[in-house]
Structure formats: C-alpha cells, structure tokens
C-alpha cells in the first residue's frame, strides 16, 4: 500500500525558531498549555486531553514537532533536545504568552525538560509523560535491549524499512512499549499519514540520529518549577525505579505518579491519566 499524504485540515500555523509549526488548539483564552507529542506520534495523541484542559480555563496548543508533517523539515537538520526545547520557548512567544505549562510525552518530554532548563522563568509548570528526567537514567544491558530502536533507527535505510507494509513498525513499537493493550487500527492513521509526507519519516528517525548520551546544557540543571512526572506501570522500556530516581533532578515540588498502562498510558487509560493531570493543573484562575 502506497499512501498519499493528506495535510491535516484542523491545524493553524505559528512561526517559531525559524519554522512554521502546524498546531492543533483548544480553548481561546487563559494561561497557555503546550502539549508536545513524541514518537511515533502526532499531536492527535492529545485529542482526548486538550479539550479537558481547555475546560479548566486554559488555552491549549499542540504542535506537530519539527519535521513531522505538516510542520516542515528544518533546513538545518537539527533535532537535538535543546533545539526542541528552544522550539517550545519560541512557540510560547509566538502564541503571545510570557510563560506556559509544558506537557510532553516521549521526545516531547525530553523537549520539555530542555526548555525548563534553558529558561525556567518561561515554564509555569512541567509535566513529563513516560520519560523520567534524562539525568536520572542509568544505562544497563537490560535497558539497552529495551531501547534497541535507538540504534536501529540510526542505520542507513532505516526510514525505508520503517515505511514498509504501510508503516507496520508503528504497531510493532506500540505493542512493545505498551504490552497487553489492544490497539485499534485507527490509532495509527494520523501518524501513518504524517510520515507519508516527503521527508517526514526520515525526520522522525533523525531525532534518534541527533541523540547523544551526553546531556545537553538544558538538561544539566535541576528544576525548581512545580513538576509532575508520570510513568506507566507496564512500560516496555523503563521501570518505576527510573521514575523515582528523577526526584534528584528537581529542587522544587515534584510528584511522581505511576499509573496503569505502558508507554502510551495517556491513550490506554485516559481517564486515570486525566485525573492526575487535571488535579495537578487545577483551575486556570486558581492561585
């Protein structure tokens, strides 16, 4: 099956850090919340979350991250975590806000950590989903096997192989990282469509090519803003001990919440996820 890319009709554009970011949005006024997706994913991962946050009085924006169509592939080919963090800081400015609550999943969580370290005054609250603070992750042989995609996605021809059989690897990864959950085919349509755009699948894998075990400057700073780190009890990549170790990377109040589900727990158990997230955010006008 050869897919024909169809641009997402529900997006608007914010120009930030030299790129035209395609974004989804919910709510028209209130403090800003940025919802940042990971891999292999799109901002539609937040379709059930964005409206619920907006109902608390927030303005919610979920960008397609750099290179993930309809957001264009960056000419500089930069996908490192601090560049992603600067994207978020620029999106806050482009949205006309002074600061924002940042909520990130997977690569989005890495970007949120970087943004908070680079400009803590711009981050009102931080929420990281499925990824503990990178400074707390200690490599082991077991972890290396669980994250073997960090190596395979960097190899020549990786994008071509990833696109085979109508992007069958998307389901493979979801089932590996969220074991036991029965994923409907419809769950993968948005990401398959996005990755079928010219250059988008390669861009998605280039996030892995940009990864370095050496922490970038934005992730070497302990964080003082109120923070929530959410992990899945059956995540196929990381365990409770990895998330608990995150406490050392914060000087401010931090909550570690371990919830039912795997790596995509906000999709697997949306209501349990929302209960914790919405309590942490509170009403936009409170305080």
Question: Care to give the gist of this entry?
Answer:
This protein has twelve helices and eight strands. The chain has 287 residues and is of the alpha/beta class.
Describe the secondary structure blueprint for this structure.
Elements: E1 12-16, E2 19-26, E3 32-36, H1 50-54, E4 59-63, H2 81-94, E5 100-105, H3 107-118, E6 123-129, H4 141-146, H5 149-152, H6 158-162, H7 164-177, H8 189-195, H9 200-209, E7 227-232, H10 240-244, E8 254-259, H11 265-268, H12 270-281
Helix pairs in contact: 2-3
Record field, number of beta strands: 8
Written as H for each helix and E for each strand, in order along the chain, the element string is: EEEHEHEHEHHHHHHEHEHH
* Major sheet summary line: 8 strands, mixed
CATH level 4 superfamily: Alpha/Beta hydrolase fold, catalytic domain
Relative helix content: 25-40%
Name of the CATH first level: Alpha Beta
Named at the architecture level, the CATH assignment is 3-Layer(aba) Sandwich
Total discrete domains:
1
In spatial order, strands of the major sheet run 1-2-4-3-5-6-7-8
Sum up the overall morphology in one term: globular
């Amino acid at each position: 099956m050869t897919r024909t890319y169809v641009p997402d009709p529900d997006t608007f554009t914010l120009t930030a850090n030299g790129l035209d970011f395609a974004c989804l949005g919910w709510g028209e006024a209130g403090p800003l919340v940025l919802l940042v997706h990971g891999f292999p994913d799109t901002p539609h991962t937040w379709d059930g979350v964005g409206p619920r946050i907006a109902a608390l009085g927030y303005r919610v924006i979920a960008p397609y991250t750099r290179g993930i169509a309809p957001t264009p592939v960056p000419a500089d080919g930069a996908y490192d975590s601090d560049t992603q963090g600067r994207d978020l800081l620029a999106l806050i400015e482009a949205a006309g806000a002074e600061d924002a609550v940042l909520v990130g999943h997977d690569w989005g969580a890495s970007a949120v950590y970087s943004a908070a370290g680079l400009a803590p005054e711009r981050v009102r609250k931080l929420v990281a989903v499925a990824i503990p603070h990178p400074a707390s992750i200690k490599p082991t042989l077991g972890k290396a096997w669980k994250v073997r995609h960090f190596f395979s996605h960097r190899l020549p021809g990786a994008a071509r192989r990833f696109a085979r059989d109508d992007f069958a690897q998307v389901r493979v990864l979801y089932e590996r990282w969220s074991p036991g959950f029965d994923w409907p085919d419809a769950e993968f349509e948005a990401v398959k469509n996005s990755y079928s755009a010219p250059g988008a699948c390669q861009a998605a894998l280039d996030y892995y090519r940009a990864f370095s075990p050496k922490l970038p400057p934005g992730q070497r700073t302990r964080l003082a803003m109120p923070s929530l780190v959410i992990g899945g009890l059956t995540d196929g990549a990381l365990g409770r001990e990895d998330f608990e170790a995150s406490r050392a990377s914060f000087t401010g109040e931090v909550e570690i919440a371990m919830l039912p589900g795997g790596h995509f727990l906000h999709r697997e158990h949306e209501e349990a996820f929302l209960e914790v997230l919405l309590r942490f955010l509170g009403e936009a006008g409170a305080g």
